[in-house]
Amino acid sequence: SAPGRFADYFVICGLDTETGLEPDELSGENFEQTPLRRTFKSKVLARYPENVEWNPFDQDAVGMLCMPKGLAFKTQADCREPQFHSFIITREDGSRTFGFSLTFFEEVTSKQICSAMQTLYHMHNAEYDILHTPPTNDKDSCSSTGDCNGTAVSKLQRFNSYDISRDTLYVSKCICLITPMSFMKACKKVLEQLHQAVTSPQPPPLPLESYIYNILYEVPLPPAGRSLKFSGVYGPIICQRPSTSELPLFDFPVKEVFELLGVENVVQLFTCALLEFQILLYSQ
């Protein structure tokens, strides 16, 4: 049986420099997209501990749900703000485990990966020029459009480009907590503080491994009806577990639902739920 720990696993997902750039088949490859806009396969790079008896690690599910869109590449010209999301893994017996993932961007230091991205751009630009260059004998078309070599379209297509001699390449990476209960706010704070410690010029008071070990082995689940306070990297973190007589744990802000859907849509959804209509939410 589970010993009642706050978290079962700490996971890192991202780019495997040994296997290089692999197209993400699940997302459907679109070679018309520029290489920076394509998706590449991400992998589970590390996890700790290796395995726990009461919650076997599902590498395929965790890897896919941590980075559902695969790897994303950007340059210094793109926005690279960290993004947080949560997910649920439901097993065949109906039991659930919860995941909380913080995705951020870090600089690509592998020369092989940078060179591979540059090669993809050379191939993409060459194919694009062939497809969009009018026939040489079509002089009327050239004179009427003023664009014999498709330069206007080509410039638009190459706006989001990568030049190894000019640009800095960044790739998405993810840190994740796998937990038995859905303490979203506490897990988000833990991950954000860990990320802050990695990117801060000042090192944290203790090695990062100490904080990860603490969250995995020394922080218990709060008893029903009680709250728990434990130390993060830069400050205390608090979570509260409802008692058996209260509504079940729901640690997500309802405000975000109204911000994303709007008041009218939320009212319509609530009406549909009361009338027992089937509801389908479609999202990227």
TrEMBL record:
Record GO cellular component, one term: trans-Golgi network
SMART domains listed in its UniProt record: DENN (SM00799), uDENN (SM00800)
Gene3D superfamilies documented for this protein: 3.30.450.200, 3.40.50.11500
Keyword set, alphabetical order: Guanine-nucleotide releasing factor
GO molecular function: guanyl-nucleotide exchange factor activity; small GTPase binding
Domain UDENN: 24-284
Superkingdom in the source lineage: Eukaryota
PROSITE patterns: DENN (PS50211)
Listed GO biological process terms: retrograde transport, endosome to Golgi
Protein name per the record: DEN5A protein
Organism per entry: Piaya cayana (Common squirrel cuckoo)
